[in-house]
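## retry 2 of 3
previous attempt timed out at serialization; input unchanged, resubmitting
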Amino acid sequence: MKAYELFSAADPALVTQLLDWFRDHDRNVYKSAVATLAQSKKLRLVFIQKKPLPEQYAWILKTLRSKQSDTIGEHLLQAWFMAGHQEMLAKFCDAMGIEHDGKGSVTGDLPTEIDAAKLDGAVDTLLKDYDPKVVTLYLRVFSLQRPGGWDALTAKLENDSQLVLA
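## retry succeeded, writing output
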């Protein structure tokens, strides 16, 4: 799935969680994303900023669901996970044996293949500690890091009933 498809499939509450995180922790990213989305729709930023927050979020989500917003959507997802979910990313990398900087940012090469048994253990570990929707979204974003993803991860995402976005 591409980022715009992830936003289309995700529970709107999950997207609200992402947007709230940016508003609370990195307002510059939030403002920049809204400005970029507004510009892509030929709107002025102030037009969006004057809307009440629930209407802003609804407009942002609607815009992120469009194919033309795929790049900004992917950047938002990556930034949210890299800054707001470092512990979860590190646990996943540890469980998968992927070299990282201690905060979940991969330092070596991504694996060419993913061991299905290791993946099962890693997913079980994450599901014990984190919201299944956040875990699912992370795994889908991780899959975007390699063209075509990984067969084992794709199969896990398609067949595990615990890994749903909505």
